[in-house]
Write a structure and sequence with these properties.
The complex is a heterotrimer. Chain A folds into 2 domains: 133 residues, Immunoglobulin-like (Sandwich), CATH 2.60.40.10; 49 residues. Chain A has 2 helices and 7 strands, in the order H-E-E-E-E-E-E-E-H. In chain A, 29% of the residues lie in helices and 27% in strands. Chain B is an all-alpha fold. Chain B has one domain: Formate dehydrogenase/DMSO reductase domain (Formate dehydrogenase/DMSO reductase fold, Up-down Bundle), CATH 1.20.1630. Chain C has a 5-stranded mixed beta sheet with strand order 12-11-10-3-13. In chain C, strands 1-2 form a two-stranded antiparallel ribbon. Chain C is globular. The longest helix of chain C has 33 residues. The chains are: A alpha+beta, B mainly alpha, C alpha+beta. Bound molecules: iron/sulfur cluster (SF4) (2 copies). The site of one iron/sulfur cluster (SF4) has 14 residues of chain C, from helix 5.
Chain lengths: 196, 451, 304
């Protein structure tokens, strides 16, 4: 720069501009090619009698396995994601992670679970989230939610039959007597006095 | 109308004069008494108006003591009402002649008490405007519904019981009382439903009286048992007990017998019926009261011995509070003054004379009322979780003037209903229940004619 | 009374069909526009109410208003959210009586501090053991004594496990209060302190509260319907309260998500007074390995 200090101000501006562009593009270049890239994650599932394994192979854009890549595994639940596997799961030298899926985790009515695999906060690779639906959960039997069972805490319409029978038979019995007596009183009122 | 009243009433017999006199003549004392009752009712009415306007906040009830003297008063009235019809029906079925003068009184007490019980439960509701929801949205699983059903049934039954035994006497009033205002004549005419001592009428009347006397028994037992279930179906210390049903019923017997004795005494004095309510009646009622008190004592021991022996958690705290804590004075007043001492005194004959037994009975009735207080309130103040984090006012329960006024007015209503019924109808059955030979002859003639 | 009811019902339907779109959008818009000046509570926003009137509302209240619109009307609220069984776990070892859950619950249910739905008890099981804090709300029992005794079905058990109260049906007999062994219920002895809230009533928010009726913790079904946690759960700075779906077998305290069965197994979860057989839907984890020493000074505790 010192050599060019005689250059007029416009030229200087131009130079700064060029160097800025060059600098920037070198950053961009580095990001794409050297610093940050998309990891390629391929997920496969295998199950034995009593284990269910999620196997993930991580390779970079050139197809080389990635070692020591941390991945997070979750299952989607009502409010949040439930972590599965160990607290830290990282790839081995072949770029492979095996994560055991809990065999007793409930899924939806047909046993589907949404498995979420996350790659986050890596220095080299971009964040990514994969979501796979897998038929690995225990199918939940949703009790017939429309028809409430007959019980003491059910709504009035679903009172226990025995209770209804007992109470109403007692009510009928006693009110039958009451009405019988009232009827008899009515009969009494209809009797004409005897004339001696 | 004046001409009608001025006509001097004539009675055919001395008995008629003594027993019908009070329905005809109105004394100044009676008027003052009614005025006093109306005043108390009016004050209670104002208190209730305030409660309607501001909500239950005018009471001292809060989230822990969520039931107060309204409910204990309700239980008291249910207890009183039970015994009226029980005594009358048992005595009727037994063909106990000595007790005939007492049946009418106990029936009247039963009717008055059950009406008051039904009303006081509405007073206790936070939303009386929604009373009919109880019918619209009725849930048969709730003990409250059982109670509502049984109370309304019992109300009808006790009215019927009173009416059936009154029927011949109303006809008698219709036929014999001349010096009474027109409306009263009209009332007797309507209410006597053409009763003419026709043998067939007498026969039917006998039959249904007996039927009713039998069927009132299970209902009367049920009414207080179901009321005890309002408590026994919860987990509260002191309520969570299988003993509660018989405990309540036996307590009701005793309280009711005492109330009848009090009523007998007052009626005897004020209506000058010494000849008809005799010392013999007091003597016999005294014995009955001792017997009933002993039964109640037995259930009391059952109720307190187990928990006091075990001293389990809050149950133990509750018992300790009753025995030696905040509620100890009231508890020992109730147990000694309202139960044990009456038994001891009434064992001796001199105390079964009218005045002593009257005083003792007043103690029994007071004890019975406070006993219900002790059943309802301390239990609520001993929940499983400690009482913390709440306003100071939630810790104690001292009824406010509104609660007392309403409670007092419920008593005034009770007395008013009794007074009016006694004023309208002869308080002691005028006609002898035994069918005399003349009637039997008539009946036979009638039967022969028919066949 | 009935007339009145059907009237409000139809209003509510109107709200549901038209306003839940329109009015909520308006509320949201207002919220968005005014977020910058939210601190100045004197500022007012003009909003459309349920019966089509324009009202001025202080900005400080907008958030609460937005929440209030979500609850289902009384008849609809009787049906639970399908396929769910809500469950709560309270970790006593982490509670230091910060009372944030109480505060937020009070705020969202318009309660005064003297009668909160959530209470934090100072418990001491026996003389030798050390005291601990125990937050307690309604346990939404599966064998609910309160529901059994209600004469009119004003309090009811939903299919998703929640026990709710319909304040438009409650007759105020207070039998449920006597029956609840956990003292979970409070009563509206007088007029609600906040005055009249001009809102359609919903049992899911318990708002607006009505004099002479009973109330309690409702597990915030209005929030659950939007897949959000009840207010008290994220409010706790120490992550004491876990909430979730039993069918899912998962509970979360907003930060940490764990399997319910594992949590209960590993930490020896229990239900309070199990022996009563009420089958509460709220579990406790015993106060062992405490995170905080037991300190009574609530002022300091809540400053965390
Ligand atoms: S904790 Fe009490 S109010 Fe809640 S469901 Fe159980 S019994 Fe009912
Ligand atoms: S107070 Fe209300 S909710 Fe409770 S039992 Fe009575 S009617 Fe039902």
């Amino acid at each position: 720069m010192r050599n060019h200090n005689y250059l007029n101000i416009d030229v200087l501006k131009l130079l700064i501009l060029i160097s800025l562009v060059a600098f920037n593009s070198s950053i961009l270049y580095g990001q794409d090619e050297e610093v940050m890239e998309d990891a390629i994650l391929s997920i496969s599932f295998s199950e034995d009698n009593d284990t269910k394994i999620i196997t993930t192979k991580a390779v970079d854009q050139s197809g080389m396995p990635i070692e020591d890549l941390e991945l997070y595994y979750f299952v989607k639940r009502t409010f949040s994601l439930l972590p599965i596997g160990d607290s830290f799961n990282s790839t081995d030298e072949n770029g492979i992670i095996k994560v055991e899926f809990p065999i007793d985790l409930p899924g939806d009515t047909i046993g589907n679970v949404n498995i979420v695999v996350k790659l986050i906060e890596s220095d080299i690779y971009n964040d990514q989230t994969l979501e796979i639906t897998k038929n690995w959960g225990i199918p939940t039997v949703i009790e017939d939610q429309e028809t409430e069972k007959r019980s003491l805490w059910a709504a009035a319409a679903n009172a226990p039959i025995s209770l209804i029978v007992i109470v109403s038979s007692m009510i009928i019995a006693i009110w039958y007597i009451i009405f019988y007596i009232i009827f008899k009183l009515y009969k009494i009122s209809k009797i004409k006095p005897l004339i001696n | 109308m004046n001409t009608v009243i001025q006509k001097e009433q004539e009675y055919r017999t001395k008995r008629g004069k003594a027993l019908l006199g009070h329905t005809v003549n109105t004394s100044l004392k009676y008027k003052l008494w009614i005025a006093f009752l109306l005043l108390v009712i009016f004050i209670g009415g104002y208190a209730y108006y305030r409660q309607l306007k501001f909500g239950l906040v005018v009471t001292a009830m809060r989230d822990y003591t969520s039931w107060g003297i309204y409910i204990s008063n309700f239980v008291f009235f249910v207890a009183i009402s039970l015994v009226g019809s029980l005594i009358s029906s048992i005595l009727k079925l037994n063909k106990n002649d000595w007790s005939r003068p007492l049946t009418r009184v106990s029936e009247i007490i039963a009717v008055a008490a059950i009406i008051c019980a039904a009303v006081i439960i509405i007073v206790d509701m936070g939303r009386p405007d929604r009373f009919f929801y109880v019918i619209m949205h009725l849930r048969i699983q709730s003990p409250i519904i059982w109670d509502v059903i049984i109370i309304s049934t019992y109300l009808v039954i006790s009215l019927l019981l009173l009416y059936l035994s009154l029927l011949p006497d109303i006809a008698l009033c219709r036929d014999r009382l001349t010096a009474i205002p027109k409306w009263k004549k009209w009332l007797y005419r309507i209410m006597s439903i053409n009763w003419s001592n026709h043998p067939k009428q007498i026969e039917t009347h006998h039959k249904i009286t007996k039927l009713l006397a039998i069927s009132v028994l299970p209902v009367a037992f049920a009414i207080h048992t179901v009321t005890s279930w309002l408590f026994a179906t919860t987990w509260r210390p002191g309520w969570d007990s299988t003993n509660l049903g018989p405990y309540f019923v036996s307590g009701a017997f005793m309280a009711g017998a005492a109330v009848i004795i009090v009523a007998m005494y007052l009626i005897r004095i004020h209506l000058k019926l010494k000849k008809y309510i005799t010392e013999l009646h007091f003597e016999k009622m005294g014995r009955l009261l001792v017997l009933l008190s002993l039964v109640y004592l037995y259930f009391n021991i059952n109720e307190y011995l187990g928990p006091a022996f075990k001293m389990v958690g809050v149950e133990g705290e509750h018992i300790t509070e009753l025995f030696t804590g905040k509620y100890a004075p009231m508890y020992w007043f109730v147990q000694l003054g309202g139960l044990i001492l009456p038994i001891v005194f009434l064992i001796f004959k001199p105390f079964r004379k009218p005045l002593p037994i009257f005083i003792i009975s007043i103690f029994v009735v007071l004890g019975a009322w406070f006993k219900r207080f002790l059943i309802v309130i301390p239990s609520l103040q001993h929940p499983y979780l400690p009482i913390q984090d709440v306003d100071e006012s939630y810790l104690h329960y001292v009824p406010t003037w509104e609660e007392w006024a309403i409670t007092m007015s419920s008593f005034a209503w009770f007395l008013l209903i009794i007074t009016v019924l006694i004023k309208l109808f002869p308080v002691i059955p005028v006609l002898k229940e035994k069918i005399d030979s003349e009637t039997i002859n008539k009946l036979n003639v009638f039967k022969n004619e028919k066949s | 009374m009935e007339n009145d009811n059907s009237n409000t019902d139809s209003r509510r339907w109107f709200l549901k069909t038209i306003s839940s779109g329109g009015i909520l959008a308006a509320t949201g818009l207002a919220l968005g526009t005014f977020t910058s000046c939210k601190e100045k509570s004197a500022e007012k926003t003009t909003l459309l109410t349920t019966d089509g009137k324009l009202v001025q509302v202080p900005n400080s209240e907008i958030e609460a208003m937005e929440h209030l619109h979500q609850g289902a009307p009384p008849m609809e609220a009787r049906e639970g959210i399908s396929g769910k069984k809500w469950v709560m776990v309270v970790d006593l070892s982490k509670c230091k009586n910060a009372r944030k859950c109480v505060d937020l619950c009070d705020k969202h249910h318009n309660l005064t501090p003297d009668r909160p739905y959530i209470k934090v008890y100072e418990m001491k099981d026996n003389e030798k053991s050390s005291p601990y804090w125990m937050p307690k709300k309604c346990f939404h029992c599966d064998n609910p004594p309160c529901v059994k005794v209600c004469p009119v079905g004003a309090t009811y058990k939903r299919t998703d496990g929640i026990v709710l109260i319909d304040n438009e049906r409650c007759i105020g007999c207070r039998f449920c209060m006597a029956a609840c062994p956990y003292s979970a219920r409070v009563f509206n002895w007088g007029d609600p302190p906040e005055g009249k809230l001009d809102l359609p009533y919903s049992p899911e928010t318990s708002l607006p509260s009505k004099v002479g009726t009973v109330a309690k913790c409702d597990f915030c079904p209005d929030m659950l319907r939007q897949n959000k946690l009840p207010h008290c759960v994220p409010a706790c700075p120490n992550g004491v309260i876990y909430f979730g779906d039993e069918i899912d077998d998962t509970v979360t305290n907003g930060e940490e998500t764990v399997r319910l069965s594992t949590l209960l197994k590993d930490k020896a979860g229990y239900r309070y007074l199990e022996e009563l057989g009420t089958k509460p839907r709220v579990y406790y984890l015993p106060p062992v390995d405490r995170l905080f020493p037991f300190e009574k000074n609530t002022e300091e505790n809540s400053e965390s």
